[in-house]
Specification:
The protein has 325 residues and is an alpha/beta fold. The protein is built from 13 helices and 9 strands. Helix 6 packs across helix 7 and helix 7 runs parallel beside helix 13.
């Protein structure tokens, strides 16, 4: 057979094998779905694109609860390729709905009550030091929390109360509601609007946030400061671990898996403390000094086994609704 005929036969054989390789007709793009607070450094994906030829599009859509709920509704026919923001309190929902083909641990941190140091200093009152204190009359009307139905930190705070009080958690929540706790929809509303210690200068000196919120106050301060205006009540901290995963039915599973590998690599992991304000899980990733100095990482955080959360999550939320709403 002549060379031209060999080439023609090869082309016919390739065509009969069904289509083209992903990206063969043009640039490849992988879509990363995440919550609004996913704010990695500008240009962080440039090296990934240069190495792989794959562009990254980040699409955010509300708090983590909203993003995960949408991912569950579109399971198997997703709106993106990679999902960021599943944690140990929501992992069971994602697994039950078969949302992900694969996943990887990407970060860890703690949800904790934060307080406004100046507010208590000005009042000459000692800030609370425990969950027990939050239901005392001295701290009436001072705490703002997030709705655990839609908010990841709100759910973690509910889990903290269950881990601390066991079967008595419902009594503690009744006392907290009677102590005039404020419940809002999401972290952004709670921290940046209602909390007195951050930019919103709200009316509540106590807020459910993160053990890494104090260094964030330094990094984002309008005027340079060397010490954060907020502090963390360490005994209230609930440990969260966070996952990213390849969505089942992703348009380009290979590109999604390559992005997942990048997310657990040293470059991206070292970017997270001062952009996402979480601890990296890659043991080779270093921490910046401001994060190492001011972020709280309790030795004995409150925890609940994932299997127990999976078994009881819906009933706990239903009971919480009856008490709080």
């Amino acid at each position: 057979m002549k060379p031209r005929l060999l080439i023609a036969a090869a082309l016919i054989l390739l065509a009969s094998c069904g289509g083209t390789t992903p990206g063969a007709d043009g640039p490849r793009t992988v879509t990363l779905l995440a919550y609004d607070a996913f704010t990695p450094p500008e240009g962080i994906f440039n090296s990934f694109t240069e190495r792989t030829g794959i562009s990254v599009e980040v699409v955010t859509g509300g708090d983590s609860g909203s993003v995960i709920s949408k991912a569950i509704l579109t399971a198997g026919n997703p709106e993106g390729d990679v999902l960021w923001g599943v944690d140990d309190t929501t992992l069971s929902r994602v697994e039950e709905a078969d949302v992900l083909d694969s996943r990887a641990l990407v970060s860890e941190g703690d949800v904790c009550v934060n307080y406004d140091k100046a507010w208590y200093a000005d009042k000459g009152v000692a800030p609370p030091t425990s969950l027990d204190d939050l239901v005392k009359p001295a701290y009436r009307g001072q705490l703002v929390v997030q709705d655990p139905v839609n908010s990841s930190p709100g759910l973690a705070f509910l889990m903290a109360s269950i881990a601390r009080y066991g079967d008595e958690w419902t009594d503690w929540w009744r006392r907290l509601v009677a102590n005039d706790v404020t419940i809002v929809s999401d972290w952004t509303t709670a921290y940046t609007i209602e909390f007195s210690g951050s930019s919103g200068r709200g009316r509540h000196p106590l807020v459910v946030s993160y053990g890494s919120s104090p260094p964030a106050e330094i990094v984002y301060a309008a005027t340079p400061i060397v010490e954060p205006p907020t502090a963390v009540i360490e005994s209230t901290c609930f440990r969260q671990v966070e996952y990213a995963g390849v969505l089942r039915g992703a348009d380009d599973g290979d590109a999604a898996r390559q992005l997942l590998d990048f997310l657990v690599g040293v470059e991206f992991q070292e970017s997270m403390p001062l952009s996402l304000f979480v601890f990296p899980v890659n043991p080779n990733a270093g921490l910046p000094e401001v994060f190492e100095t001011w972020a709280v990482r309790p030795r004995s955080p409150l925890t609940i086994p994932a299997a127990e959360i999976q078994t009881n999550r819906d009933s706990w939320l239903e009971t919480w609704r009856a008490i709080a709403l």
